[in-house]
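Summary of Year 1 activities. Much of the first year was spent building the evaluation harness for sequence design. The harness presents a backbone, in tokenized form, and records the residue chosen at every position. We chose the following record to illustrate the format because it has been used consistently in internal testing since the harness was completed.
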């Protein structure tokens, strides 16, 4: 197996892993987005009940306030735990892998030992 073939296999495996992680991260971001929306709607409903003209006992108002504050806190935690930076890093890594694959293909298997070592060291790490 030539150096080019070894690097192609390595980079194709890394590309597959990176693509899988990006898809997984996108799914997580979608779930967090919908969870955040449902929390926001629940908080609005609780606050509108508290502001309505219904006569509520002081205990009910206290409980609703605590629930509303807890929901807002959870929502803020999810919003501050932003996954877009991680997604951008993975996208950059994927682009870099694809660029190196194109370079290896353009060399038609004529990689020097030094080029092979540089590329191998760069991409032989865990994603």
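For this record, the design step produced the sequence shown next.
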């Amino acid at each position: 197996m030539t150096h080019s073939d070894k690097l192609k296999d390595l980079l194709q495996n890394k590309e597959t892993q990176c693509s899988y992680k990006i898809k997984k991260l996108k799914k997580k971001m979608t779930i967090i987005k919908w969870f955040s929306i449902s929390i926001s709607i629940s908080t609005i409903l609780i606050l509108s009940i508290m502001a309505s003209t219904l006569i509520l006992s002081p205990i009910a108002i206290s409980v609703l306030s605590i629930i509303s504050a807890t929901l807002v806190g959870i929502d803020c935690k999810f919003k501050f735990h932003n996954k877009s930076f991680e997604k951008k890093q993975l996208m950059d890594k994927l682009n870099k892998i694809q660029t190196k694959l194109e370079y290896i293909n353009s060399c038609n298997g004529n990689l020097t030992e030094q080029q092979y070592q540089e590329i191998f060291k760069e991409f032989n790490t865990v994603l």
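The longest helix spans residues 3-51. Quantitative recovery figures across the full test set are reported in Table 2.
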